[in-house]
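Reopening: Secondary thiamine-phosphate synthase enzyme still failing for me.
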Amino acid sequence: MAACTATVDTIQPITCRGLSDHLKRRQPASGTLFSASRRQLTPRSEPVARSAVGLHITCAVQRLDSPSTSGVAPTEWFQKTIALPAYRRGCHVVTRKILEQLPELADFEVGMANLFIQHTSASLTINENASPDVPLDLNDSLDRIAPEGHHYRHLDEGLDDMPAHVKSSLMGASLSLPVRQGGFALGTWQGIYLNEHRNYGGSRSLVITIQGQKRSDGRAYGRSYREQRF
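Support: Ran it again with your exact input. Result attached.
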């Protein structure tokens, strides 16, 4: 079940369970509508609005299998910037390096994590963490897609710079990862890759933002990076 605090276009807070009466006035469709006073909403059987345009909701979610029926834990936000050490040009599995600098992740029961790299000549991706040939083949493939040469206009920072920008845009600057029981919910053979596209890129900064629910007992899970494969 979810208890939500909603703010509508009028900037008036509304305490609700589900949808606010703001939605009652938008796009009726089949389903369940919530009859409401100005402050409190209770469910009844009528058409429901599907659109949440103009509605900003902060929800506290309780696990359905939880024995407790009260004390719903709130959704919390956490953000941190970490620095990865300098790597040679290529693709590198850095899951362990990230988790070693993110002990706060162990506090979260469930949620989502966004990893954002603050550079235009490096990138992030998810790929195989087992075979050492995969990072090498991936980097070779990127070199074939965006080779060095004088055919680029932007040559001010070296022959490896413009290809690095191309590779960064192809691979992406951010990742969204599910959080489960104090760790990233990666597959058995998945790892987080830092793709270093410059010959001498130096240290790389990552901004990590987590939105989720912490454990209801206030405890933290064990250091998850010790239990995962990389």
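The first strand starts at residue 2 and ends at 7. If you still see a failure, please send the error message rather than a screenshot.
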